[in-house]
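Inputs:
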Amino acid sequence: MRGAVSGETSGQPNEDPVARAEKALADLSSEFGGWMDSECDRLDKARCALAKKATQSNMDALFHAAHDIKGEASTFGYPAIASAADSLCRLIEHTPDIDRIPLKLIDQHVDAVRAIYREYARSDAKQLAATLTKRLHEVTREFLLHENRERPEILEQLSPSIVPE
Amino acid sequence: MVRIDFNRLRFLVIDDNAHMRRILRTLLHGFGAREVYEAEDGAAGLEAFTHYIPDIVITDWAMPIFDGLELMQMIRQPGANANPYVAIIMLTGHSEKKRVTAARDAGVTEFLAKPISAKGLYQRIINVVANPRPFIKTKTYFGPDRRRNTNSNYIGPERRKGGKADVIRQTPLLEKARAPV
């Protein structure tokens, strides 16, 4: 009974719904630059709040801002930013004692996200992003390995995603 | 060939990020959906779920008040609300194995990792409409059958915990969403 299924809207039987949705998203894309700007601003504000007062609430806000950027950057047309945001998420999420996260390392992540966004129009933007992100990942990994050296269950959580693309 | 009409389905989108809600609304409208309701956190999401009784819930994981996982656990409480069998698509930036496992064990119907794509979302929706899994109720679990495939040749121990399992089949969404010929 199941057979092949296609979606459609009544009255438009021949139009591919995915193509229609992609076009609608493309029509929306003129707003993406402004949205990315506001997300980077939100990340920066969260970093400043944390620097003023290191509370769990402020750390959660920073994580949330980075987590949203990680999920949205590619959709907004800035895929190179997602990886830097992901590194910050990992740093916060997998450090057992957040008071031990160096503020400097957080600053480096936030500054990298903002720099990549700011310089996105450059012809070597991808290379710039790759260089910044690679270094962030290396430093973060070293830090997390050290902080979790007696917590194999945390290290195991850093395993790759099993979600099909 | 079976065709579905998105116009006949009611969606509830729950995400604390306004940009993401706008993107999801745009995609769903692009597919042809007309009833798309929104909520900006877990509590508002539960209220909207009770009020609108959607066919499909698309929820983020990380949200204030209570998150998508907690929301799903509340929805899946048998007898707690109008429709614990609702199709729930978890859309999230989390993609680690433990997260996927946790969502599966909380009764998620489909899991979709960000970044979102029109094709990815569309495929998940088609899957919940056209290929619904029966619900399983045991002492420790209530939700879609976590086994996507059954193997009649399986010889081995019963791995399903929680004792006796009730298999509950629902009226497929396909019957509601099938487009007229």
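The helical segments of chain B are 18-31, 42-52, 68-75, 97-105, 118-130, 173-177. Flag for discussion at group meeting.
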